[in-house]
Amino acid sequence: MLGKLVRWLRMMGHNVKYSINMDDSQLLALARNENRTLLTRDFELYQRAITKGLDAFYTSGGTEEERLAELARRFGIRLEIDMTISRCPKCNVIVRSIQKEKARGKVEESTFRYCNEFWECPKCHQVYWQGAHWPRIRNTLYAAESKRVSAERKEA
After folding, report:
1. pTM of the predicted model, to two decimals?
2. 3-class SS at 128?
3. Domain boundaries in the chain?
4. 112 Cβ neighbours under 8 A, 6+ residues apart
5. What confidence tens digit (pLDDT) does each residue in 106-124 have?
6. Which residue from 51, 94, 141, 148 puts its CA 20 to 30 A from 85's CA?
7. How many Cα atoms occupy the beta-carbon half-sphere of 72 within 13 Å?
């Protein structure tokens, strides 16, 4: 239910576990065993986690910007992507900078010609770059930051 949010958090460098195959009991056990914060949109699951003394956060935001803003406020998360700590959105492994030539054949030829910096996941070998999609990423993060600031002003 929070798969897109997971990808955002990983890109921002956060170690996030995610599974659609675990039931609630397994999620609670994982949070306890690995001392993780449980993020959820399931209020009953949130209540169970709190009752068991686990750190949990219920997100009510309807958009990615709203959910990111909520997390930034609650956990002090910086709403920016730093490729030196960014994680693979798929695997959760820290991506590594690769030489441009190593990206040849792994990305479209136009992407290879246009971009000079590439990163690769050492586990799944997915290649990443800051291409035409990057302004949308920045806009989402900017909108989330604006919502965070606005919410903090309302509280003050």
Report:
1. 0.93
2. strand
3. 1-79
4. 100, 103, 104
5. 999 999 999 999 999 999 9
6. 148
7. 24
